[in-house]
Each structure stands twice: as C-alpha cells, then as structure tokens.
Amino acid sequence: MSSISYQATGVPLELDADVVVVGSGAGGAAAAAHLVSQGLSVCVVEAGAWRPPESMPSDFYGAMRDLFDDWQSTLTLGPALWPVVQGRCVGGTTVINSAICVRTPEKIIASWGAEHGLDATYYARELEQHQDALETLLHIEEVTPEMGGRHNALAEQGARALDGHDHSMRRYTKGCEGRGRCMLGCSAGRKQSLDRAMLPSVLSAGSVIVDCAPVSRILFEGRRAVGVTGTFTHPLTRTKGIPFTVRARRAVIVAASATHTPALLLRSGLKGKALGHHFRSHPGAGVLGIYDEPVDLHQGATQGWASLAFRDAGYKLETLSLPLQMLAARLPGGGTTLVRRLGQSRHLNHLVLGLNARASGRVRAGPAERPIVSYKLGRDDLERLREGMHLLARIHVAAGARQILPGITGLPAVLPADRIGDILKVPLNPRRFLCILSHLFGGVTLGDDPSRSGADPHGRVWGTEGLVVACASAIPTTLGVNPQHTIMALARMRAQEIADNRDVRAVA
Amino acid sequence: MSIAPSTAPDRRAGPLQPDRPAQPDPRTGPLHGVLHAALLALYPPVDDLPGLSSTRLDPFLRKVYAETPRTVWGALILCALILHLSPPLTILCPLPMALLPDSWRDRHVDRFCASWFYPFKQAGFLLKTFGGACWGADPQVRARLGQPPLEQD
Ligand SMILES: Cc1cc2nc3c(=O)[nH]c(=O)nc-3n(C[C@H](O)[C@H](O)[C@H](O)COP(=O)(O)OP(=O)(O)OC[C@H]3O[C@@H](n4cnc5c(N)ncnc54)[C@H](O)[C@@H]3O)c2cc1C
Ligand code: SF4
Q1: Ligand 2 center to A276 CA (angstroms)
Q2: Which of A207, A276, A408, A426 measures 20 to 30 Å from A120, CA to CA?
Q3: Is A501 left (phi over 0), alpha (psi -120 to 50) or beta?
Q4: What per-residue confidence (pLDDT) applies to B151?
C-alpha cells in the first residue's frame, strides 16, 4: 500500500485509517509523519499531484500550472487585488518555498497566552522540543557565500553598512546548489520540502497518500467528524474522476492552508462565529536596484540573506531572486521601455520585505470550491510598508546600486540614488503598491473563546468532535518571521495530542 | 491498521504526466489574434534583444489555451481587448491599437502598463506575466541575457 493518484474510472474509492489528514503541506505532512511515528495509521488526502524532482517544471509557466494553487489566480478582494500565493501539490507550499527556517519568537508565544488564552508555558516548551526535533529531521544548512552568490552578498554588504545585518540564513536544504529556482520546485532535490523529507516515512510505515484528490466536504455523524469525501480531479485537465471517501476512526485533521481550511469547514456546514475571520498575512513587496557590475540573480540561493534587525519596526528583510520570466512582469512599463529594462536584467538585484501587518481579513467559501479572501491594509500598515520599501532602497544604495526601481505607481519608474527619499512621500493608497501574500495565517484561529476563535487551544474545532486544525489557519497572530517551522511544530503538537489519545472533543 | 485495499495503481514508480495532451489544442478561437497582437506589442525587439515575434509564441498560446482554466484564458482575452481599445484613454488617440503607427502603439502600451487607472495596470500585469513566461523562456533571449537555457517543459 502506498500512494494513490488520479482515478478516472472504476468503483468509488473507499479507504479508512485511524486519522485522515487533509492537505500534505507544512502542517499536514508534519502531522502525518509524527502520527505514523507514534504507531497510528494515516491517510493523507491531497488536492494536488505528486512531483518528484525529475518531473519538476522547467520554467515559471510550468510552475504556475503544476505547483501553484489555481494558477496563482487567487487575488485579495479589497481596494487592491494582490495575489495570494501557495502551493497545490504533494508537499504543499513547502515545494515552492525558499526553505528558510526560523524559530517561533518568544514574544509571539507570550502574546498567544495574553491575548488568546493559550497556555504560553505549554506552547513554549512543546514548540521548542518539536523544533529541536525538526531541525535534526530536516537537515538545516547555513547559507555559505558560495551558495549565496553575488545577489545575497550585495544585500548583506548594504545591510551591514546600515547596521541591519543580524544573522546568517538557515534553510532546510542538503547541499543546496544555489540554482535560484526554489519557487519552481527544486529539480536538484536539495531542498528538504516535505514531499521528500517527511512523506516517504508515511508511505514506508504502510500508511497511504491519496493525491489529485481535493476534499469537498468533511463527513459528520452528529457532531463527530468521521471522514472526508470528494472527487478525484485531474491536475491538468481538471476532468473529474471517481468519487472517494476516507473514513477516520480517531480524528480528522484539516491542514489545507489558511485559505482552504476555513473554506472547507464552511463548505461542510460548520457555522462557528469566528470561522473564516482573523485571516492575516505578511504582505511582501520588493524593490529592485540597478548595479554597475552584473549581479546575476539566477546564481545563488533564491533567498540567501535575511535580516530580523527591523522586526520591531514591523518588517523582515530578505533577498529574492526572480526567474527572468517573472522579472518581465515585475519590471515597470511595456513595449520598448520594458524590453530595454529587461536588457539590464543581469545588473538587477531584488530585495523584499515581509510586512508584519496588523490588518485582519476574512475567508469565505466561494464557487467551485475556491476560497474568497477579503483583505485590506490599514493606514498604519501602509505607512510601515512605505518605510520598509525606503529602507530596501537605502540598502541597495549602500551596496552600490546607482538607480532604484521602486515599483510604486506614481513615482518615476527609475529613481536615481539621491532621490529615494521620494518613496516616503507616496500617498498611502494600497493600489500604488504591488504586494504578494505568501505567509498566511488564521481563519480557524486557536483561542479560548468560541466567539473569537475557530478552534480551542488544542486545535479542536469548536462545536465538533474529532476535528482538528493543524496548518497555518490555526495561528492566531502573524509571526513576523517565516512560518514553516512554527506550522510544522504546531502540527506535531496536535499529532502528539491525538496519539496520546487525549480527548479530541472541543468544548461546545 | 486496516486500510481498505484499493484498485488504484501505485504511482510513485514514475513521474506524473497525467494524460497531458501530446499536442496543444489548436483551436484557440478568433480572439487568439487579439491576444497575440497584444503580447507582441508588449515585447517588441529592441536593439540586439529579440522580441516575442521571434519566439514560439503561437505554440505557447495554444498551450496556454489548452492548459489554463477557462477563467484564466477569459481574463487574458479580456485584458488584451482592453489594451486594444484603450488608446483614447492613454494617448488620447481615437483609434484601436491595431491601427496605430508603431511609435504610437509603443507609447500606448507603456502608458497602459504604468497607468494610474488600476484596471489598466492590473491588465498590463497579467498580460506581461504570460508574455514574459514565453519571452523569458526563449533560448535566444536567455543566451543574450547570460541565462542558461531551460530544459524542455
Ligand atoms: C513563494 C513562497 C515562499 C515561501 N518561503 C518560505 C520560507 O522560506 N520559509 C518559511 O518558513 N515559509 C515560507 N513560505 C510560507 C510557507 O511555505 C507556508 O506558510 C506553509 O507551507 C503553509 O503551510 P500550510 O500547512 O498551512 O499550507 P500548505 O503548505 O499550503 O499546504 C496545504 C495543502 O493542502 C492542500 N489542499 C488545499 N485544499 C485542499 C482540499 N480541499 N483537499 C485536499 N487538499 C487540499 C493544498 O494543495 C496544499 O498541498 C513561503 C511561501 C511562499 C508562497
Ligand atoms: S536554491 Fe536551487 S538548489 Fe538550492 S534549494 Fe533552491 S532550488 Fe534547490
């Protein structure tokens, strides 16, 4: 017994296991691997397809088609339409992410206690233990100068000049070749995405992974979640195959991401007051710099430099190499102006910030089983976004950039180094900025108050029995740092609680 | 542990190439030309850099048509139509883009993409994303820009 993929015809597929896990990303894979290590049988049900390194797409178009959720077409509904980027494949977003590993900040855990009624001591202890274990399990590598390439070195140099360099980047990689294509899936098989690093242990323990199988509904008997159901869907043609049903003897874990988990719960008829609410994110925005010498963004780790030095100001800074194809869309203008700018692409470096935004949005269940995400940054967030972009421009200049491409509507497309201060004068209108939402949180948040949270402090969905959330949707706040480490550790906590046979009923 | 036996094949044996059409669907409809022209205008040849016209744009568009959900294809066509019909609003010229002289067309697409009017800016972004996917994958373009060639999709 191993993995089951798209089934076009035949009798409906029926399976059962101790625990059914919906979604195989950071949360789902970590929960499943921990459950099998505790002797439980698991069936992981994943909407996307399985892609081994040798069948990773070769380019950005192929990545949109094969790895990204819905061709990256989910946009925030609000004043600005910003892409909500996540993966849809076995391994989830860990297949397309940059594998940056950061522990949960203590301050954040304390705020979960103070503001959401979680036992902060229990969380701090458990998260630390699980993150220790995860760091052994998933090879953690520090980015070396050889791995990082020139674009990361320049960022570090610029940040040092502004006292903004504080740590070396650690990533879940094994011998990263610095191919700068993490977003397209690692064809070298160096990234320890969870399809490679965790899910094989689920299979070798005799458990099952069903892919190309989007779950449409959770099945209930009374208030008890007893399984899931859906129809196989061809990952390319979207042709429907046979229906499937997977029954759970002990619990159903939903780990389908901060947008899909709340949408699935709502589709399944749950009506919790706070379900779908408190959706949060770290909107990411980038600034390009033009350098005299070639930078060659395509050489070196995709994101090999980061700084937490400005976390209190509300942003984390990183490098991000963009494949040429994505750069084409990101550069301003069209026609000869655009192509001429692309002609300078070897001289471009790209710095990004992840804004620790205070804004809170909402996820609803949309048509065709797609989530609808409403999200709007407030004035205060926009101010910090603008300030952070100015800082990125300063780092570029300190590293030797002679011109800046701020990518902000209303400013000249190209700013000379002595005019970057103009960024601080841009009106605070979200439509002027191009942000991408890639770190997502909430929607079924943990908390001790059913009117303000979707699940109790142990991830058990209010008003149900045997239904547990274990992905980013459970996180009640933003983190201010990259979330995968926290999500995996929380998922392992949930798995351990189920394995220990602790009551999986939520207080109604 | 009891997991019911299934009739499904074990698929970890090989990579997933799920019944992908061997050839892209050739029927991209009458509006194919509208999208084609919009993308060519966005990525013209400049100096020694090839434009989209010297890449394999037609097969690429057929692939996009065959592989994207109808919503994505529909959005692309809609954005291309908006680009065609908007010269009165960008360069104050009452002609569709196809009838503009080259230099005017070039000014129009540049202003369209950098527009203050949010729907134009967003439409330009979507068109540039797909045009860029084709242009940036072209071996000649990549060679000129010092990038290694891509493996076949
Ligand atoms: C480009 C990018 C770069 C990033 N880089 C980093 C980084 O370097 N470090 C870091 O810590 N974080 C990074 N992140 C964020 C991190 O990857 C995510 O926060 C994390 O993977 C989210 O975990 P999750 O379990 O909530 O969801 P996901 O990992 O997205 O997994 C959810 C899974 O559920 C599946 N699913 C959805 N709906 C259904 C359904 N109905 N039925 C069955 N399955 C379903 C999806 O297909 C998906 O596989 C990055 C994100 C992006 C987009
Ligand atoms: S930078 Fe390249 S080799 Fe390194 S993990 Fe990312 S895709 Fe793999």
Answers
A1: 34
A2: A276
A3: left
A4: 84
| Torsion angle (degrees, nearest 10) of CA A479, A485, A486, A491 | 150
- List, in sequence order, every residue forming a beta bridge with A52; answer none if it has no partner: none
Q: How far is CA B88 from CA B43, B117, B126, in A?
A: 21, 13, 21
State the pTM of this model: 0.94
CB A4 within 8 A of CB A466: no
- Cα-based angle A157, A159, A160 (whole degrees, multiple of 5): 65
Ligand 1, pocket residues at CB < 6 Å: A 22-28, 45-48, 85-88, 92-94, 96-100, 183, 214-215, 255-258, 260, 264, 438-439, 471-472, 482-485, 487
H or E stretch at A152: helix A145-161
Chain B neighbors of A233, CB-CB under 8 A: none
Q: Of A277, A347, A439, A458, which residue is the catalytic one?
A: A439
* Calpha distance A121→A287 (Å, rounded): 40
- Which of B3, B52, B110 would you mutate first to test chain A, the one with the most A CBs within 10 A? B3
CA A480 to centroid of ligand 1, rounded, Å: 17
Whole-angstrom distance, CA of residue A108 vs CA of residue A124:
10
Closest Cα of chain B to A163: distance in Å? 33
DSSP 3-state assignment of A376?
Answer: coil
A439 is catalytic: yes
Pull the structure tokens for residue A397.
């200049």
Q: Which chain B residues contact residue A238 at CB under 8 A? A: 69
Binning pLDDT at 50, 70 and 90, where does residue B27 land? Answer: low
Reported residue count of chain A is 508
Query: Per the structure block, which two tokens stand in for A356?
Result: 């620790």
The residue ranges of chain A whose pLDDT is under 70 are: 1, 503-508
CA A316 to chain centre: 15
Query: Looking at residue A503, what is its pLDDT?
Result: 63
CA distance A33 to B62: 41
pLDDT per position as a tens digit, B90-107: 999 999 999 999 999 999
d(CA B35, CA A163): 48
Distances (CA, A) of A333 to A43, A297, A338: 49, 21, 5
Please name the member of A208, A294, A334 whose beta carbon is closest to the beta carbon of B112.
A334
Contacts of residue A312, Cβ cutoff 8 Å, sequence gap at least 6: none
Residue ranges of domains in chain B: 32-43+51-144
b (16+ CB within 10 A) / e for A458-474: bbbbbbbbbbbbbbbbb
Q: What does the buried/exposed string (b/e) look like for A479-489 if buried means 16 or more CB atoms within 10 Å of the residue's CB?
A: bbbbbbbbbbb
Q: What is the pLDDT of residue B19?
A: 44
Closest Cα to atom 29 of ligand 1: A25
Distance A192 CA to ligand 2 centre (A): 10
Q: Which residue out of A67, A100, A143, A182 has the highest number of ligand 2 atoms within 8 Å of its CB and is therefore the one to mutate?
A: A182
The token pair that represents A458 in the structure block: 């142990």
Closest Cα of chain B to A92: distance in Å?
16
Residue A411 amino acid letter = L
Judged by CB atoms closer than 8 Å, whether chains meet at A343 and B11 is answered as no
CB within 8 A of A83, min separation 6: which ones? A72, A73, A74, A75, A436, A437
Separation of alpha carbons A507 and A448, rounded Å: 10
The ligand placed nearest to the CA atom of residue A181 is: 2
- A235 vs B16: CB contact, 8 Å cut-off? yes
For ligand 1, atom 5, which residue shows the shortest CA distance? A97
Rounded to whole angstroms, the Cα distance separating A143 from A149 reads: 10
- Can you list the domains of chain A with their CATH numbers? 3-499 (3.50.50.60)
